[in-house]
Amino acid sequence: MAKRYWLMKSEPNVYSWDDMVEEGEGTWDGVRNYRARNNLQAMKKGEKFFFYHSNIGLEIVGIGEISEAGIGDPTDDTGKWAAVKVKPVEKLPAPVTLKEIKAEDSLEEMELRKLMRLSVCEVRPDEWKKILSMSKANAKKG
Predict the structure, then answer these.
(1) I need a labelling partner for 135 at 20 to 30 A (CA). Which of 40, 64, 72, 89 fits?
(2) Given this model, what pLDDT does residue 12 score?
Protein backbone atom coordinates (compact mmCIF):
# COMPACT_ATOMS: atom_id res chain seq x y z
CA MET A 1 0.00 0.00 0.00
CA ALA A 2 1.26 3.45 -0.90
CA LYS A 3 2.36 5.82 1.80
CA ARG A 4 -0.17 8.42 2.77
CA TYR A 5 0.25 12.10 3.54
CA TRP A 6 -1.27 14.06 6.38
CA LEU A 7 -1.80 17.55 7.75
CA MET A 8 -1.68 18.15 11.48
CA LYS A 9 -2.78 21.38 13.11
CA SER A 10 -1.40 22.96 16.22
CA GLU A 11 -1.80 26.38 17.75
CA PRO A 12 1.70 27.88 17.58
CA ASN A 13 1.36 29.42 21.03
CA VAL A 14 0.77 25.88 22.40
CA TYR A 15 3.09 23.74 20.22
CA SER A 16 4.75 25.34 17.21
CA TRP A 17 6.95 24.15 14.37
CA ASP A 18 9.91 25.69 16.22
CA ASP A 19 8.96 23.78 19.38
CA MET A 20 9.02 20.49 17.48
CA VAL A 21 12.38 21.37 15.88
CA GLU A 22 13.84 22.25 19.28
CA GLU A 23 12.43 19.07 20.85
CA GLY A 24 13.70 16.83 18.02
CA GLU A 25 10.85 14.38 18.49
CA GLY A 26 7.48 15.03 20.06
CA THR A 27 4.23 13.25 20.80
CA TRP A 28 1.13 14.35 18.92
CA ASP A 29 -1.51 13.82 21.57
CA GLY A 30 -4.59 15.43 23.08
CA VAL A 31 -6.76 14.88 20.00
CA ARG A 32 -10.40 14.38 21.00
CA ASN A 33 -12.21 14.00 17.68
CA TYR A 34 -13.10 10.54 16.35
CA ARG A 35 -12.24 11.22 12.72
CA ALA A 36 -8.91 12.81 13.69
CA ARG A 37 -8.26 9.82 15.98
CA ASN A 38 -8.98 7.44 13.12
CA ASN A 39 -6.47 9.35 10.98
CA LEU A 40 -3.86 9.08 13.75
CA GLN A 41 -4.53 5.34 13.98
CA ALA A 42 -4.10 4.98 10.19
CA MET A 43 -0.66 6.60 10.18
CA LYS A 44 2.45 4.53 9.52
CA LYS A 45 6.03 5.13 10.54
CA GLY A 46 7.85 7.14 7.86
CA GLU A 47 4.78 8.88 6.47
CA LYS A 48 5.04 12.64 6.06
CA PHE A 49 2.74 15.40 7.28
CA PHE A 50 2.35 19.12 6.84
CA PHE A 51 2.65 21.09 10.07
CA TYR A 52 -0.11 23.69 10.09
CA HIS A 53 -0.23 26.62 12.49
CA SER A 54 -3.89 27.04 13.43
CA ASN A 55 -5.64 30.06 14.95
CA ILE A 56 -2.48 32.20 14.82
CA GLY A 57 -0.92 32.25 11.36
CA LEU A 58 -3.32 29.89 9.56
CA GLU A 59 -0.55 28.49 7.39
CA ILE A 60 1.41 25.37 6.54
CA VAL A 61 4.97 25.96 7.72
CA GLY A 62 6.86 22.67 7.58
CA ILE A 63 7.05 18.97 6.87
CA GLY A 64 7.27 16.39 9.62
CA GLU A 65 7.51 12.63 9.69
CA ILE A 66 5.76 10.00 11.77
CA SER A 67 8.58 8.47 13.83
CA GLU A 68 6.38 6.07 15.80
CA ALA A 69 2.80 5.06 15.00
CA GLY A 70 0.05 3.24 16.82
CA ILE A 71 0.61 4.47 20.35
CA GLY A 72 -2.01 5.28 22.94
CA ASP A 73 -2.49 8.89 23.93
CA PRO A 74 -0.53 9.46 27.15
CA THR A 75 -2.99 12.22 28.14
CA ASP A 76 -5.94 9.78 28.04
CA ASP A 77 -6.78 7.35 30.81
CA THR A 78 -9.74 5.78 28.99
CA GLY A 79 -7.62 4.03 26.35
CA LYS A 80 -9.77 5.19 23.43
CA TRP A 81 -7.59 8.00 22.04
CA ALA A 82 -4.55 7.65 19.79
CA ALA A 83 -1.24 9.44 19.42
CA VAL A 84 1.87 9.28 17.27
CA LYS A 85 5.46 10.40 17.69
CA VAL A 86 6.63 13.03 15.23
CA LYS A 87 9.88 14.62 14.16
CA PRO A 88 10.69 17.56 11.91
CA VAL A 89 11.96 16.97 8.37
CA GLU A 90 12.20 20.46 6.89
CA LYS A 91 10.74 23.92 7.04
CA LEU A 92 8.90 24.86 3.85
CA PRO A 93 10.72 27.39 1.62
CA ALA A 94 7.82 29.76 2.41
CA PRO A 95 4.55 29.26 4.29
CA VAL A 96 1.35 28.48 2.39
CA THR A 97 -1.62 30.27 3.92
CA LEU A 98 -5.16 29.04 4.32
CA LYS A 99 -6.27 32.00 2.20
CA GLU A 100 -4.01 30.79 -0.65
CA ILE A 101 -5.28 27.23 -0.26
CA LYS A 102 -8.91 28.43 -0.40
CA ALA A 103 -8.13 30.45 -3.55
CA GLU A 104 -6.63 27.44 -5.36
CA ASP A 105 -9.35 25.60 -7.32
CA SER A 106 -7.34 22.37 -7.55
CA LEU A 107 -7.45 22.15 -3.73
CA GLU A 108 -11.22 22.54 -3.38
CA GLU A 109 -11.64 18.94 -2.14
CA MET A 110 -8.83 19.15 0.41
CA GLU A 111 -9.96 18.07 3.89
CA LEU A 112 -8.40 21.25 5.29
CA ARG A 113 -11.02 23.21 3.32
CA LYS A 114 -13.97 20.84 3.65
CA LEU A 115 -13.55 19.91 7.33
CA MET A 116 -12.15 23.11 8.78
CA ARG A 117 -12.30 22.01 12.42
CA LEU A 118 -10.55 18.66 11.85
CA SER A 119 -7.13 18.78 13.50
CA VAL A 120 -5.62 15.76 11.72
CA CYS A 121 -6.43 15.55 8.00
CA GLU A 122 -5.42 13.30 5.15
CA VAL A 123 -3.73 14.99 2.18
CA ARG A 124 -3.97 13.35 -1.24
CA PRO A 125 -0.70 13.02 -3.23
CA ASP A 126 -1.80 15.61 -5.83
CA GLU A 127 -2.66 18.06 -3.03
CA TRP A 128 0.73 17.41 -1.39
CA LYS A 129 2.55 18.22 -4.64
CA LYS A 130 0.46 21.36 -5.21
CA ILE A 131 1.18 22.71 -1.71
CA LEU A 132 4.92 22.10 -2.21
CA SER A 133 4.85 23.96 -5.54
CA MET A 134 2.89 26.84 -3.96
CA SER A 135 5.51 27.08 -1.20
CA LYS A 136 8.34 27.26 -3.76
CA ALA A 137 6.45 29.93 -5.74
CA ASN A 138 5.89 31.95 -2.55
CA ALA A 139 9.61 31.77 -1.76
CA LYS A 140 10.45 33.13 -5.22
CA LYS A 141 8.05 36.05 -4.68
CA GLY A 142 10.16 37.00 -1.70
Answers:
(1) 40
(2) 95
DSSP conformation class of 55: T
Taking residue 125's Cβ as centre, other Cβ atoms within 10 Å add up to 11
User: Cβ contacts of residue 16 below 8 Å, gap of 6+?
Assistant: 10, 53
pLDDT at 1: 59
**CA-to-CA dists, residue 45 to 36, 94, 119, 120, 121, angstroms:** 17, 26, 19, 16, 16
Residue 142 has a pLDDT of 73
| Cα dihedral across residues 107, 55, 50, 30: positive or negative | negative
Residue 22 belongs to what H/E stretch? helix 17-23
Q: Which residues of the chain have pLDDT under 70?
A: 1
Pick the CATH number of 5-141 from 3.10.590.10, 3.20.20.80, 3.30.470.20, 3.40.50.300: 3.10.590.10
